[in-house]
Specification:
The protein is of the alpha+beta class. Among the domains are: 125-388, von Willebrand factor, type A domain (Rossmann fold, 3-Layer(aba) Sandwich); 517-620, Four Helix Bundle (Hemerythrin (Met), subunit A); 621-728, Severin. The strands form six sheets. Strands 2, 4, 8, 17, 19, 20, 22 and 23 form an eight-stranded mixed β-sheet that branches. Strands 9, 10, 11, 12, 13, 14, 15 and 16 form an eight-stranded mixed β-sheet that branches. It has a five-stranded mixed β-sheet with strand order 27-26-28-29-30, with helices on both faces. The chain is globular and about 75 Å long. Residues 400-504 form the Sec23/Sec24 beta-sandwich domain.
């Protein structure tokens, strides 16, 4: 496993198979598809950033890379994908064996280009969309969190504010004399043209011709835009004044009805306003929603409390009357946001469902962040919101306006991507007829992403004949990933990652495939695949699919004698994979029992954007044991790990549990850790807390921290209300 992590540390790529099956049939027999989990902007301390444009192939537009064949005498390089001969430009005249440009160094398989003069003139843009149909206590928590977030904004960033309940209020921050808002009816969808007309955008400049996209460059004056989007340094006082005076929605709510909430209309107005003012800027809509949408487009339930919110059972039976209409609305919103290059971030905080399942398509296609918590006062929400704007060493490294492209050897095609992106519908010979996720294209739009955002690429081997057995070990398949994006410094950059993996085929290929199998990456690919299939295939049985996949894997790569079950054994390269599949079958990605559709959508959205290391923790939680007898060590997820004199640290990604054995709990309650002669006990108590804090500081969304004791009521309470801990009950059995 270490060598695969080393490759990830060099290129940000983990492949399920680090050698490529030689034919389509052999790839099919491998069960786990040829795939890669790629982190486009994973930080590399030693990666060079070149201050010039890349040298591209004139035929296929790939980039000069370490796998290109170079003729130094003739000053020609041959593209490894289309074998086109390309001449070096004059500024490469001094190239030689001893004088290589950085892009030809074998260790620089991942490199970035920074073209001079290509920087965005528009600063970061944040549009806050705030729900006011919540109780006073929640409103106080939300106002406090927003005030802190506004104080963390970059001074030059542009900020806007929309509040909504029964009606949508667009606040004119540039009108400093008195608070001024434009009010829209929540039950009515407002087009961009109607929005601009009603908000008096064309009082100074005439309305542009029909069909022209408005913006600072073509139709709207900068003065008009500055009425609603102001630099944070100029409007911080006005924003804080509005937040201090902000009250819950004044419209009365009958006791037998839900609060009126027009989330869809508010988000549509925010998208149209940003599309008119700052198209293509990488702006972010931060939506803070505290309950289900009951009004206007995007509503997920009626106002009558007698009508329950849709459950998994309702969705399976197709008896959720609002679901498909709401999804269709948010699909249109997602298309609009992707076209504009804008991001939708969702902060959903309520004990009830708020519509994450319907909003999923808009958040995922724009690469937005998502946080789900019980309350706006919960640490999960407050700490996660602070992390979005934190500019310290452990910031998220948010980037925007990305376009991801891929080029492959002729015998490899792309089926699609599972992850936070949207297809640009760039069809070509690289596209497979089989579509998985965002497929039938070789280019994708990524409106927003952070340093941990990872894409799962699914490939198809199209070669049908078996290569010459004497040659197959020397033939390589190549892949080239391009990712152009707007860096957090506003610079436009192009990151290029070049990969080469060996083809294997024939009778001796089994051992080569085993040696190149990354079981962690394979488990993550299977988790994303099964989640995707559960969402699009009506009669799909995930348990049976996973079981059949594991059986076929074991029959192909295991060693056994027929009719002798005790003789079965797996190579160490495969030994943990069945364990991953066992936990995946029981995970919240597959088992929807005790989870709402919102929770299931949330878990799958996080899985679809995280890297391999974090995704593995979601599939199979880690358990670390602390005791006086030994240093902290991993423990099996089994009741045998529990002992009275041990402390256990359970990390299931979304929740972190510090579990004290009964003796440890008694000593702690007696205060022994506060006595000088028991410093060793104090250190034992502190060690898991320090490790938990380190995990919390690096993770987004911030996980819940639960501290409980063996036989304690807190553990019983958490088991009953938390689905993740419920499935781990055998490991933390009372």
């Amino acid at each position: 496993m270490a060598e695969f992590m080393e490759l990830e540390g060099q290129d940000g790529v983990r492949m399920a198979w680090n050698v490529i099956p030689g034919t389509k049939q052999e790839a099919s027999n491998c069960v786990v598809p040829v795939s890669a989990v790629y982190t486009p902007i994973k930080p590399f301390p030693n990666m060079p950033v070149l201050p010039y444009a890349p040298l591209r192939c004139r035929n296929c537009r790939s980039v000069l890379n370490p796998f290109s064949i170079v003729d130094f005498a003739a000053k020609i390089w041959i593209c490894p994908f289309c074998f086109q001969r390309n001449h070096f430009p004059p500024h490469y005249a001094s190239i030689s064996d001893e004088n290589l440009p950085a892009e030809l160094f074998p260790q620089y398989t991942t490199i970035e280009y920074q073209s001079p003069g290509e920087a965005s003139s528009i600063p970061p843009v944040f549009m806050f969309v705030v729900d006011t149909s919540i109780i006073e206590e929640e409103m106080a928590f939300l106002k406090s969190a927003l005030s802190q977030a506004i104080g963390l904004l970059p001074d030059n960033s542009l900020v806007g504010l929309i509040t909504f309940g029964t009606l949508v209020h667009v606040h004119e921050l540039g009108f400093g004399t008195i608070p001024k808002t434009y009010v829209f009816k929540g039950s009515k969808d407002v087009s961009k043209e109607q929005l601009l007309e009603q908000m008096n955008f064309f009082l100074i400049k005439p309305k542009p011709p029909t069909g022209v996209i408005a913006g600072a460059r073509d139709g709207l004056s900068s003065e008009s835009i500055a009425r609603f989007l102001l630099p944070a340094s100029d409007c911080e006082f006005a924003l804080n004044s509005i937040l201090e005076e902000l009250q819950k929605d004044p419209w009365p709510t009958p006791v037998d009805q839900r609060a009126s909430r027009c989330s869809g209309t508010a988000l549509s107005i925010a998208a149209s306003l940003l599309g008119a003012c700052v198209p293509g800027s990488g702006a972010r809509i931060l939506a803070f929603i505290g309950g289900p949408s009951t009004e206007g487009p995007g509503a997920i339930v009626s106002k009558n409390l007698s009508d329950p919110i849709r459950s998994h059972k309702d969705l399976d039976k197709d008896s959720a009357p609002h679901y498909h209409k709401a999804v269709k609305f948010y699909e249109a919103l997602a298309k609009q946001l992707v076209h504009q290059g804008h991001v939708l971030d969702l902060f959903a905080c309520a004990l009830d469902q708020v519509g994450v399942a319907e909003l999923k398509v808009a958040v995922e296609k724009t690469g937005g962040l998502v946080v789900l918590a019980e309350s706006f006062g919960h640490s999960v929400f407050k700490d996660s919101l602070r992390r979005v704007f934190r500019s310290e060493d452990k910031d998220l490294g948010l980037s925007s306006n990305g376009i991801f492209e891929i080029n492959c050897s002729k015998d490899i095609k792309v089926q699609g991507i599972l992850g936070p992106c949207a297809s640009l519908e760039k069809k070509g010979p690289l596209c497979s007829d089989t579509i998985v996720g965002q497929g039938s294209t070789s280019a994708w739009k990524m409106c927003g992403l952070d340093q941990a955002t990872s894409l799962c690429l699914i490939f198809e081997v199209v070669k049908k004949e078996i290569p010459d057995a004497t040659l197959h070990s020397n033939i390589f398949g190549s892949q080239l990933y391009f990712y152009s994006y707007q860096h957090s410094t506003a610079e436009m950059r192009l990151r290029v990652t070049s990969l080469s993996r060996r083809w294997v085929a024939g009778p001796g290929s089994i051992q080569d495939l085993i040696a190149g199998f990354d079981q962690e990456a394979a488990a993550v690919v299977m988790a994303r695949l099964v989640s995707f299939k559960m969402e699009i295939e009506a009669e799909f049985d995930p348990i049976r699919w996973l079981d059949k996949a594991l059986i076929h894997m074991c029959s192909r790569f295991g060693d056994y004698q027929k009719d002798s079950p005790s003789s079965f054994s797996l190579s160490p390269r495969f030994s943990i994979f069945p364990q991953f599949m066992f936990h995946l079958r029981r995970s919240q990605f597959v088992q929807v029992f005790n989870n709402s559709p919102d929770e299931t959508a949330y878990f799958r959205m996080i899985l679809n954007r995280e890297n391999v290391a974090n995704s593995v923790v979601m599939i199979q939680p880690s358990l670390i044991s602390y005791s006086f007898q030994s240093a902290p060590e991993p423990a099996l997820l089994d009741v045998a790990a529990i002992a009275a004199d041990r402390i256990l640290l359970l990390d299931s990604y979304f929740t972190i549990v510090i579990f004290h054995g009964s003796t440890i709990a008694q000593w702690r309650k007696a205060g022994y850790h506060n006595q000088p002669e028991h410093q060793a006990f104090a250190q034992l108590l502190q060690a898991p807390r320090d490790d938990a804090d380190a995990i919390i500081n690096e993770r987004f969304p911030v996980p819940r921290l639960v501290i409980c004791d063996q036989h304690g009521s807190q553990l019983q309470l958490e088991m009953s209300k938390n689905s993740e801990m419920f499935r781990l009950q055998p490991a933390l059995s009372l």
